[in-house]
Prior knowledge:
By secondary structure, the chain is of the alpha/beta class. The chain has helices at 13-20, 37-46, 60-65, 84-89, 102-117, 120-128, 157-167, 182-188, 195-201, 221-226, 244-252, 292-310; strands spanning 4-7, 24-27, 49-52, 71-74, 93-95, 149-153, 172-176, 191-192, 204-207, 232-235, 258-261, 281-283.
Amino acid sequence: xxxxxxxxxxxxxxxxxxxxxxxxxxxxxxxxxxxxxxxxxxxxxxxxxxxxxxxxxxxxxxxxxxxxxxxxxxxxxxxxxxxxxxxxxxxxxxxxxxxxxxxxxxxxxxxxxxxxxxxxxxxxxxxxxxxxxxxxxxxxxxxxxxxxxxxxxxxxxxxxxxxxxxxxxxxxxxxxxxxxxxxxxxxxxxxxxxxxxxxxxxxxxxxxxxxxxxxxxxxxxxxxxxxxxxxxxxxxxxxxxxxxxxxxxxxxxxxxxxxxxxxxxxxxxxxxxxxxxxxxxxxxxxxxxxxxxxxxxxxxxxxxxxxxxxxxxxxxxxxxx
Length: 321
Ligand code: GLV
């Protein structure tokens, strides 16, 4: 009997066909709507392989209810939505998609930085609302990106790709990470600093760390207080890394100048989210890796991980505890 694979979101035909060569595949058919919990619960009980995305919490009860599951492959680099320990206890492989999305996510992160620095959303609103009266000497003046200090918290692959973009703008690159990154220092001239120094001296602060128990609300009230009043804060990793209430207050009280956010603590956010009421917030709906070719590459990699594990091999990008 062919192994059974459940896909939690509509995928392109070529991905399904690839899996169907050796597996029986079932899929939640909608693309714009996450799989209902009851369907997921029912499918995970019998599936040999689960192809999921960032929107499904694959928690302990779900994992424990699985009778045949051998692999959970997520179409994402971040896997904070999956209970890795519960999976390890049942010898279930978890696989994710690092690397393939780094450059694309760095592009978006830098776009967010530039949009926030030069107040692009406010400019767009002005024109659309028919409020552009005249050229004016200090109208919508923003902040220079070139020659500014870029502070990167979390110098992994995406952090390095953001730093590389910064060098093209003659930025001074500083970073904080659990370990020193010799290569980034040599190749990009990035300088390792303690967290406090990064917070105090950066013009732009980009958080690029994975979301774990240790990084929950890593950027809190105290962190914002240490930042320059002119600092612009960028987050394209996970919303939970930031205390959103503290961010709101910091922006409202002028403790920092602006923020660019691609992620939120509870997604999706509605238009009534307090942060969206602030003109100095540039907000996007979690689209860091959303280029067509990168999303296809991620889907393909995820399918490969399932096929690898179900044919007795190791997945190329296994999450190790
Ligand atoms: C997206 O957020 C990812 O982790 O790939």
